[in-house]
Automatic annotation (TrEMBL):
Organism of derivation: Chryseobacterium daecheongense
Top-rank taxon: Bacteria
Name of this chain's protein: Uncharacterized protein
Record key words, sorted: Membrane, Transmembrane, Transmembrane helix
Entry annotated with the keyword Transmembrane: yes
Regions crossing the membrane: 45-62, 68-87, 121-144, 156-178
Length: 198
């Protein structure tokens, strides 16, 4: 095989592997769920900022011993740090959803992969708050004045039962929140990608 034949074969392979474009109608169908997800991401980011401002304001205004306020403030500041880390991942997805590369099938498949990855980040975000919950519970139990001090068994049972209920509630709320604000739109994108395969 000479050089010219090799070049022709190479060009034919490139022509076969061209990325199929998505029609304007299909792009419009995909744009709607993506825009709803972006809107929900903005709402969640602003509401999270509001919650942290409210938490710091509450700590500053509440009448409690300095140590109690200081420990809770350190925990909330640590929660802000963890939240910033996870939200930086979500922000990358937020930017990618408006990317013009989404007019190709491969671009949509890559976006779907990012959705699945961010779903894991989202649930990890909720799990990351378990240690903060433990610390806050211990601080509250140590600083609340009781008429009769709790026994060691009562303290252990209070912490274990509260944690089990709170973690289960956090898990259920996280799943519900994700499905309501993101999951159903991800399913719409998955269905559109399935249609494009046919």
């Amino acid at each position: 095989m000479n050089i010219d034949e090799l070049k022709n074969t190479w060009n034919e392979d490139d022509a076969l592997e061209e990325t199929p474009k998505i029609s304007i109608e299909q792009r419009n169908k995909i744009h709607l769920p993506l825009e709803k997800m972006r809107k929900n991401m903005r709402m969640e980011a602003w509401s999270t900022i509001g919650i942290f401002i409210f938490a710091f304001g509450l700590i500053a205004l509440c009448e409690a011993p300095f140590k109690f306020k200081f420990y809770i403030a350190i925990l909330v500041a640590s929660m802000v740090f963890v939240t910033v880390f996870f939200f930086s991942k979500f922000f990358k997805l937020y930017k990618d959803m408006s990317n013009p590369v989404l007019n190709t099938y491969e671009g949509l498949v890559e976006l779907l992969h990012q959705f699945n990855l961010n779903k894991q980040y989202y649930f990890s975000f909720y799990v990351a708050f378990a240690p903060f919950l433990v610390c806050e519970l211990i601080i509250v139990l140590e600083f609340i004045p009781y008429a009769k001090p709790l026994t060691d068994l009562q303290t252990a049972l209070t912490i274990i039962i509260t944690l089990l209920v709170a973690l289960f509630g956090l898990f259920i709320m996280g799943r519900w929140w994700f499905e309501k604000f993101y999951g159903r739109y991800i399913k719409q994108v998955e269905n559109l990608i399935e249609q494009l395969k046919k």
